[in-house]
């Protein structure tokens, strides 16, 4: 039996520069009844769970030492696919999306998309159809009404690549090299974010410095520096992991998670992260010395293997997608492309009042492998998740000693924070296990954990 092919295409990009708001009153009014704060955070948690699970399945390698994915993009694409599924296929897709506990999941996710679009997150979906191929009109209407997925004729690969390039503001070019044989339909979802730091990094202080890939290998990268940078951060007392929040204008933040020396696999650490718990534990901002790598990274991956390990292998063999069109229809591939640019660009802002509930750290240096999350501060939805083990993969690596700071070698073992709250630096290779470990299910538990850490300090 001949199978027709459906391809999921998921390009996205983000960089940090000028923020341009396109908020509309109509979009906010439309979803006021559906998307209260509780609903926002419930669907945000569902997106986070899918993203962290997916991140756990992807491992950095020599060819791609860094991983950048968009949990929101993947969630939107799988949700749109679920609109066309029946029976066990629909059930399994909703299970992976963590949608079964959420009433009116599609409507809530649709309103979250509206909410984020009002915050300068550019999102677009397109349903490409081969001329002459008949698709269920109800599926087309629901995809358009819920996920703004406009229909278009699939005429050439150049047309697809041009749409992707325009949607990502020129950040992703030549996305696909060719069309798969027998393809009849393509679902494409693209996201682009361009944000402005609340407090900028002055470019005249950016200079080359060492980033420790592991205990014996390092690479030189351009490091941005802020001597009085307003930063909210805490140290997990169980293992010394540092968690910091760098805010953007427009109610978005970049979270940076740096585990301690003993972690061996960043993917496992990231799988255990709980974004809601981290927000509950952040103290007020405090001015401190901050260094952060400046870089531009690219990532491209077919997610078939990762999704198969999450229980979605049947999508590529024999799914029931009969709500899209009659006859056999299988997914041939799930292409995901992304890039990330981190620079000094942004507007200057006043430092926040210094008041903290935990002992603060006067120095925060991101000079070792770390996990990042670009998060909406209201819904706690991670638009982007990633692991950075080498922010300058094109540069020559060098042999180096196991890094030790001055306080580490003269005052205390690297296993514990200093008495004044200052943490020793050490290579951080494993982050995903720590992240799911922090996951708490209720708000009272989150604040109880916060109070417990305060008492311990």
UniProtKB/TrEMBL annotation:
The keyword 4Fe-4S does not apply. The keyword Repressor does not apply. Belongs to the serpin family. One of its GO terms (biological process) is positive regulation of coagulation. Residues 1-20 form the signal peptide. Keywords: Signal. This is Alpha-2-antiplasmin. Residues 388-427 are annotated as: Disordered. InterPro entries: Serpin_dom, Serpin_fam, Serpin_sf, Serpin_sf_1, Serpin_sf_2. Residues 398-418 have a biased composition (Basic and acidic residues). Residues 52-391 form the Serpin domain. GO terms for molecular function: serine-type endopeptidase inhibitor activity. GO terms for cellular component: extracellular space.
